[in-house]
Design goal:
Helices cover about 45% and strands about 15% of the residues. It is an alpha+beta fold. The protein has a single domain, classed as Winged helix-like DNA-binding domain superfamily/Winged helix DNA-binding domain (Arc Repressor Mutant, subunit A, Orthogonal Bundle). Strand 1 and strand 2 form a beta hairpin. The model has no long low-confidence stretch (mean pLDDT about 95).
Length: about 80
């Protein structure tokens, strides 16, 4: 199926906001999303390399900021 990979990446990053937590001096998120999408988010500099055995990935400061912005854009209450 042909689809807009950038939009999928955007929505995945927004959803990572839901499963993100602070771990000492960084943020982490569960990596239960499509591998191709996670690889692209890594290439864009938003997350650490998802290819390890850990069930979570580190989220870069830029990734955390962008994830929050996208979550509010797509899922925030419109008042």
């Amino acid at each position: 199926m042909d689809y807009d990979q950038d939009r999928v990446d955007e929505m995945t990053l927004a959803l990572l906001w839901l499963v993100m937590w602070r771990d000492r001096d960084s943020h982490r998120a569960w990596k239960g999303f499509d591998w191709g999408t996670m690889d692209r988010l890594h290439e864009k500099g938003y997350i650490s390399d998802p290819q390890g055995r850990a069930k979570s990935i580190a989220v870069t400061p830029e990734g955390r900021e962008k994830a929050e912005e996208l979550f509010q854009k797509h899922f925030g209450n419109k008042r």
